[in-house]
């Protein structure tokens, strides 16, 4: 249900764009040395093109923000509430306030908690519940995971600031720190939020719903995991109002914790592989394999490509089409691209 | 809950390894031309090192197979069944066979369906249920998503074979086809399986549990989404036996369909970006930016690095440590790695 890769190439991260500003400035400074590999040349941003030349989707995708998510969510719940207000007589169970019950039923259904304290008992209401749960799963899975991700990212920065308060880090240093231990910070933030929500839910159920402390915690666990046996649930007006918000946030939060945990595991293994690739001894066989243009020397870019392939970061499938484009552009077939190739392309464009 | 990136760098895919075999053979053939970029040089496998030099984790991770998953699952359910056999008097609800009920309760709990037809009613049994659901979520999320992935991959090959039956494709052609439309095939396979499971579940509930066809379908929907209101559930012996397997498989299958859908969406957008990056016009600014070693020409490897960065496939964070290693290895500071650099490294190793 979660949108797999958080490293979405089309959603430029806010951290990246900050990097980019810095680097653009760096690149404009006239380069003093004109030989081997100055450091700042390596720091091109991921999307190194001007604003007019931007990929159309990358602009529009950038705009999927909180506002849109909130609008989606409100629209969805409103529609659900409207439907269930119409068929309210076809739902059995303990009722409180008409609209409150509809909202509560919507949230309990779309998060798949499904206590069963309110149950549809006609074909129409059953059909509506089925539609609601599928639509809810899609919405929660596809849209909110993105929102949660960016919310967590903002919290991370606060966390780093708090833990390094005495050191007075600059903004760029904080961003660097967050970037390096991104996954770890995200996990800690999600876990802290979850604990807070668990405590909040337990206290509420204990105080308002008159459960014992143990039963309150049991009900919290059964809810956030979306188990929802329904032996304990929210039966008062205040309870259902609270539940409508609390269930939505806490189920998402637990899912995010599990997601971060999986990410953390993958990331750790990736780091271990990267470390191994970078520290293992280079052999002559490696040199020969890395020597892409077969000139018996391995340039920096050849070395980087070779090592990134070894790390599994890139594969043949990624390289093959780019290589094809390189060959097409290399009109004078020199094995390198120069300004003369570009001029030849332009003139052939004009001729055709 | 899903393990985010399916492109796990440490789990070499079976398809890749088949590619690799082919390429290794290719490389051993003496190269006839010795200038610009023969195609097969590009086809190094992702982990281009001998078997003795293999990263320790990549070997062990490769072995997480069905067997392990089944052992995990059986061990987990056995433990759950054992626990609930001990506290069986502390669970209320309609009972059938003692062991069957324990298995059924375990599955309903670990998949977070939570009908509520069997409910723990003592502190001990409630605690056990809480532990069970968290452990179950972890198990289902972390382990089974991987297993499902590789099961689907095998099915894909069958699907391609079936759809191209008249064309008599060779094995490598099938693999190529699967690789190119991996995400699409995975989605179709998961969706077909889900539909099959829905039909199977509906027929079973209609025939064995004596529900109307509509109610049977409603119960199926409420179950596979893990909603589990509990107004309709499995109450007979045969029903609970069937449910124990069917719920486990169908909930995983629906989750996989949603996961594939998200993957498909990301993949489509990635392809659109790749296409855009490869077709947009190259400018002189691009050439200058891509020219890593500032020799006024752009080699194939420089061009590939530049384009992969533009696609968002790789970032500065990936490149920086490799660049550092390159500088360390480039002992004679020529800006390229040659055999002499390797010899210098070895001799300094001996001296120290």
Automatic annotation (TrEMBL), chains A, B:
GO terms for cellular component: plant-type vacuole membrane; plasma membrane. Belongs to the two pore domain potassium channel (TC 1.A.1.7) family. This is Two-pore potassium channel 1-like. Its main location: membrane. It is a multi-pass membrane protein. The keyword Ion transport applies. Residues 1-37 are annotated as: Disordered. InterPro entries: 2pore_dom_K_chnl, EF-hand-dom_pair, EF_Hand_1_Ca_BS, K_chnl_dom. GO terms for biological process: stabilization of membrane potential. The chain crosses the membrane at residues 69-87, 99-118, 124-144, 185-206, 241-262. One of its GO terms (molecular function) is potassium ion leak channel activity. Pfam families: Ion_trans_2 (PF07885).
């Amino acid at each position: 249900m979660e949108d797999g890769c958080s490293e979405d190439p089309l959603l430029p991260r806010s951290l990246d764009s900050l990097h980019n500003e810095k680097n653009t400035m760096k690149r404009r400074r006239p380069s003093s040395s004109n030989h081997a590999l100055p450091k700042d040349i390596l720091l091109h941003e991921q999307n190194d093109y001007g604003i007019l030349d931007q990929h159309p989707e990358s602009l529009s995708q950038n705009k999927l923000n909180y506002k849109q998510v909130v609008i989606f969510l409100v629209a969805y719940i409103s529609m659900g509430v409207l439907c269930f207000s119409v068929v309210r007589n076809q739902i059995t169970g303990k009722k409180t306030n008409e609209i409150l019950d509809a909202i509560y039923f919507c949230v309990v259904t779309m998060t798949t908690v499904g206590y069963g304290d309110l149950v549809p008992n006609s074909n129409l209401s059953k059909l509506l519940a089925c539609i609601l749960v599928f639509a809810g799963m899609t919405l929660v899975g596809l849209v909110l995971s993105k929102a949660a991700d960016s919310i967590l990212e903002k919290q991370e920065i606060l966390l780093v600031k708090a833990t390094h308060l005495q050191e007075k880090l600059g903004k760029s240093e904080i961003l660097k720190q967050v970037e390096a231990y991104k996954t770890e910070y995200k996990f800690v933030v999600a876990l802290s939020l979850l604990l807070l929500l668990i405590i909040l839910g337990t206290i509420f159920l204990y105080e308002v719903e008159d459960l014992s402390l143990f039963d309150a915690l049991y009900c919290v666990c059964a809810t956030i995991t979306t188990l929802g046996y329904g032996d304990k649930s929210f039966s008062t007006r205040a309870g259902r109002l609270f539940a409508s918000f609390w269930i939505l946030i806490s189920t998402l939060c637990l899912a995010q914790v599990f997601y971060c945990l999986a990410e953390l595991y993958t990331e750790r293994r990736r780091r271990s592989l990267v470390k191994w690739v970078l520290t293992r001894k280079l052999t002559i066989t490696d040199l020969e394999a890395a020597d892409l243009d077969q000139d018996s020397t391995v340039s920096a870019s050849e070395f980087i490509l070779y090592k990134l392939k070894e790390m599994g970061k890139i594969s043949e499938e990624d390289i093959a089409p780019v290589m094809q484009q390189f060959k097409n552009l290399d009109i004078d077939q020199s094995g390198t691209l120069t300004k003369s190739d570009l001029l030849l392309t332009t003139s052939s464009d004009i001729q055709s």
